Structures
1.
Amino acid sequence: MKCRISRIENHRFEPLFGIGSTITVRTENPKSPSPQLNLEYKLYELLDAAPGIPRVYSYWTEDRFQGMIMDRLGKSLGYCFRICDKMLSLKTVAMCAIQMLCRVEYLHQRSFIHRDIKPVNFVFGVGNLSNTLYMTNHGLAKQYRDLHTFTHNNFNVDKGVAGKARYASINVHLGVEQSCRDDLESLGYVLISLVKGKLPWQGLKTVSKNDKNKLISQSKFETSLETLCQDLPNEFLVYMTRVRNLRFDERPPYTLFRSLFISLMVKMNLAFDYKYDWVIKQTTKLDNA
């Protein structure tokens, strides 16, 4: 069988290549300081191609690189946000939030936390699955409880910041061991940034990454949830307040969190019709061509 291989995106940790129209080859240098691909492959196998989780087909290692063959996906939520001038409607954000909460809940049900929740790690499918939002890039994922007994990891401190500081939870900045609540707080920051365009701690100018992380942390502590959610429907404040109040080993009320955004859509008479802002923009562009 002959396959045409083309590079489709250059990711931070490894190149991504597309084969035909349905499969992607993801590669990583085995000599990388923090290799992640093998862990990610094993986690994808555990997640077993559930809705919103890409299927993996094989993994191999050679001298110069290691690779993983998986389902090819479409554009990331981060990309869609950028082409919409970095501002999304409440309808689009609510539709995304409901799917994103489903993906995060499923990962947590399988005893793992993501630890790197951000827009580019949520990617839409292709073809008949173009409306489905996938959660990807599990290289920083960590098991938070025993797979069989479901015994939760112990509470620890003096941990570093894993993932992007912009979306990290308050407890991550305090050096607290991450758990389910931290993924959900990060998700809240993502949703607020999508609908407001940016977060209060974005755009800080510093010399080093260390200094930037400190300034971001300081800004998060100084910004009240009321200020953070100002001019947004009350559902955002309720979500963030409930998430911030979760205990380290508490099972989050995922259904309640989803219901907030479902209720928001009902209250605003918004249809869950998958007409995202970028879809409308593209349709309008074609109509005017």
Note: The longest strand covers residues 5-10.
2.
Amino acid sequence: MPNWCDCTYKCVGDLKEVKSLYKILKYIDRRKTSIEKNGFGKWWLGNLVTKLGGDWEKYRCRGEITYYELNNNILTICQSTAWCEQEGVRNIIEEKFPSIKVYFQEEESGCCVYSTNDAGGEYFPERYYLDSGNDDSEYFTTIEEAAQCVSEIVGKMVEPDKNVIETALEEYMDEQEDDDVWYSFHEFMVVE
């Protein structure tokens, strides 16, 4: 069984093409049954690949759509995928709709995969993530914001450096007598 990855797409481009992609998602949403037989149901990513004219066996599409929304000219597609972002889905969207650029952000905590292809941070400005067993997980756009938050947690100033932040959190957790107090700090890597 895979580790599940939370992946979000932001599809931007010519409004006509963005709306066409949105209409395909609405078509899948209205269906009572799946386009292709599978274990995920109608929201399986392979159904989207098929509806876009692709062969789901040739495009990486392990996962399902969990939410979608069109807001102005940005189509957001949230997914739960196996291990990582399923680039086959992104590739066929960009092939079918040449004006659309698909920006993504993926989070898979089991193997510590945190990445985005949004180098400019226009659609996914978050660059750091503090995971917590206390339900106070947070995202940060700068390392300085992260260091300030961690400083408040550990009760002393922590300099804005990933390794220093991780060390401060490890020391803090070691001092606690409660195994339910844990933190994990991650940086979103920018990928192509």
Note: DSSP finds five helices and nine strands in the chain.
3.
Amino acid sequence: MSKGRLISFEGLDGAGKTTQMELLGQWLESQHIPYVRTREPGGTPLGVEIRQLLLNRPELEITPLAEAFL
């Protein structure tokens, strides 16, 4: 089995992370390279709920330790 790669897109809201992920996905598909796309937190029903809480409830405070565990 060949080794994979982990590519992470990080940046502020509106910086173009989703656009870049979509462009990379299109290129990988054009090259017939299999890939897996995930979102953190996300990718599972619980992860989606946690993501929505973090994005839509700014009044909820999260400690740095709790954020690291996510």
Note: The two ends are 29 Å apart (CA to CA).
4.
Amino acid sequence: QVVRVIYNNTKKLPQDRESVFWFNVLQVPPTNIGSDGGQNKMLVMLRSRIKLFYRPDGLGKPDNLAKKLQIKTVNKGSGKSGIVIVNPQPWFASLSNLNVKVNGASYNLDADMIAPFSSQTWWLPGKRSLKSFSGTVTVTLVNDLGARISESYDVPHH
């Protein structure tokens, strides 16, 4: 089966950054009720969720995307601390893994996409203060070809 996606130009998309859309597919197998002969059978349905990126012509390629991310720390008054990742670029940063090693402890945090020209905060579990620490943040991104690119950053402290 073939799916054809066409941009119909009814909605103007930003030309200074990527846009992302989600394409959801549910594959339902055909069933033939009369031919089962009284035997058990199992039907498997697959659900796929595909990211579709629109990249304007003049935007170029996201070379060294991981190297240009900026890492900051943030502390809440309640004793919680987190890591802020700033994406100052016009491309989405699709994270596949995010690991924070701080004061001898290691945290694998839920990876997510970071939109162009924006930031996202990940809170460390429990009450962890990052006021005096040493550590690294390792970010693993998925590039345009599906390869995983990792970059480690020293965690800055205030």
Note: The chain has a mean pLDDT of 86.
